[in-house]
Amino acid sequence: MTRAQFSAETSGGGAFVRQPNRFTGRVTPHSTSPAGGGPDDQGRWPLEAGRYRLIWCRACPWAHRARIVRGLLGLDEVISLGTVDPIRDERGWRFTLDPDGFDPALGIGFLSEAYLATDPDYTGRVTVPALVDTLTGRVVTNDYPQLTLDLSTEWRRLHAPDAPDLYPVALRPELDALMAEIHADVNNGVYRCGFATSQQAYDEAYTALFDRLDVLSRRLAGRRYLMGDAITEADVRFFTTLVRFDVAYHGHFKCNRQKLTEMPVLWAYARDLFQTPGFGETVDFDQIKRHYYATHREINPTGVVPAGPDTSGWRTPHGRA
């Protein structure tokens, strides 16, 4: 069996099994802690504007979804933003994009410092997004699926007046089921292809990925967005994988039955979202490519970053309005 990119997250059969999220605290108006206090006995942190900092990487799809939701809901001035370098070494995510290499709000050079300040015995992989408390330097949560849902629900009183409802109550049963399928086969599915160390594990992930893309393409052939006429959390989660598909997953992760640009419905849908305020301006194709091709040395030992593909097509008319 070939060497795994993340050996601790690879099964005996060569399948990639993503590690669980270590920190699962939640910011909520229902916390019984006072302003400035820590989590209550149920792990609930008090809702306070300006207190928490979202750490993200422009290259990471899981962090990207939090960045998009934060912007769509008008929380840019409520939750500050820290950005790590797209190149992650053995020490993890670094704040080398900031002056002197330190996050200006947290005063740390590596995100791992916040993880260890929260759990000194933590030995897992340090991940983004992470919501960090600026008062204590502790990680509130790195639970990326719950984080964005909480931004839509628990943070509602701090939303902009015209913020969209990305997680409508009436649609939640269908939304939850749909997002679970997208996560298993698409969001995480591309990683299951790329990080597989056996042919069987790769083949299974590849088949599930493109079968699901075909199902979603048929769904979107008759509606503008996944749930109808309005953007929801499901569209955000799908978009962050689609926007990385041709520049990273098609080649680097061997997801190569077709490029996104060769799937007409999904390509038009992705362009529609890209051209929607709050989406395209958060995309950095250069950082995406540099992260994937220069960080995963078990997959791309040379570290050479491809010059292509041409991304100018993202601004072309999509015809879905």
UniProtKB/TrEMBL annotation:
Residue stretches making up the GST C-terminal domain: 168-292
Taxonomic superkingdom: Bacteria
Region of interest: Disordered: 1-44
Residues where glutathione binds: W93, R125, V126, T127, V128
Residues at the catalytic site: C60 (nucleophile), Y191 (proton donor/acceptor)
Residue(s) at site: Lowers pKa of active site Cys: Y249, Y292
One GO MF term: glutathione transferase activity
Database matches in SUPFAM superfamilies: GST C-terminal domain-like, Thioredoxin-like
Pfam families: GST_C_2, GST_N_2
Keyword annotations of the record: Transferase
Positions of transmembrane segments: none
InterPro entries, sorted: Glutathione-S-Trfase_C-like (IPR010987), Glutathione-S-Trfase_C_sf (IPR036282), Glutathione_S-Trfase (IPR040079), Glutathione_S-Trfase_N (IPR004045), GST_Omega-like_C (IPR047047), GST_Omega/GSH (IPR016639), Thioredoxin-like_sf (IPR036249)
A cellular-component GO term for this protein: cytoplasm
Biased composition (Polar residues): 1-10
Name of the protein in its database record: Putative glutathione S-transferase
Species annotation: Micromonospora matsumotoense
